[in-house]
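re the bet — no i am not wrong, look at it urself. input seq straight from the record:
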Amino acid sequence: MRGAPINPLWDLHLPALTPTDECRALTYTKTSIHSLVQNRTSHLASNPNTIITDIDDGTTITMRIINVYHQRSPQGGHTLGNLLSHELDDQIPTLLIRDFNMHSPLWSSPDCTPDSWASTFTDWLETNGLHCLNPRHITTWTPPNNTQQVSVLDLVFANDATYFSAQLGEVDISFEHSLGSDHAAITIHIYPLYSPTLIPPPAPMGYRAEDKCKDAWMREFAMLFPPCLPYAPKHCTLPLVPTWDHDDWGDSVHASLKPFNDAIAEASRRTLPPKWIPDPKGARWWNDACSVAHTLARTAIRKTARKAASLNLKHTVV
């Protein structure tokens, strides 16, 4: 469901609501990506506290964002039953994000008492291959008037598919950007597969100084070396520069360095190969075992096989 925008630059997304429902979750997206955003109000996990938004390019869901507000039960339990009864599609890159109102050893400070249902939730996270992206022990909630203990309540989880697609940036937590709320703002950048951000950058400037080119470079540099400098090489036939006047010392140094640097640049251009953008899989730590594990993780068909292959890939890379 798409609500009336408060700001014309943003679209407001609401869950499907009945007249008696109390809406606890909202999602805003830029109108500039209007055609790419789908609010899945019919999704089985969608309810007044959960909004499921897909970034869909028309053929593929490149990212699914599950925006959750966990309203604790007045009886002291949790109200996540609808979410926990749902099994996520592990082939869709998925972010699970927002206020979970829950303490767990996985993200809370050591002096916080875990909630009784935390293990049920973390078991569900593990079953669905979700991993917490929050920086360790960084506070996300500060109580008003210091009446309670600061806590880590706002969380970001991502599944294995987001790692394979490499679309996520780092998580940033900031009270400065939270517009006065007692909850911190959580920022994470998503780079869609069609984003120009993923286009390889221009080739780096400069040359690769390889040992096999050393002798050729020295010969070229010796011939290109400016013969009018005080430290001229043996082949120089011009007289040496006389003693410099201290008043002109700075200008003389700069004037001498320019032909010297030009000789280095020209000798490098003639004898050295240019630099190139390194292949990420060509890094020293990426070996044949990594390639095999990556292929198995991407091609596994059954869910149990994909989970096992994903764990194997992590262990192989680490």
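see?? Residues 105 and 111 are 9 Å apart (CA to CA). told u. also Helices lie at 81-84, 118-127, 160-165, 214-224, 249-271, 288-299, 303-317. so pay up
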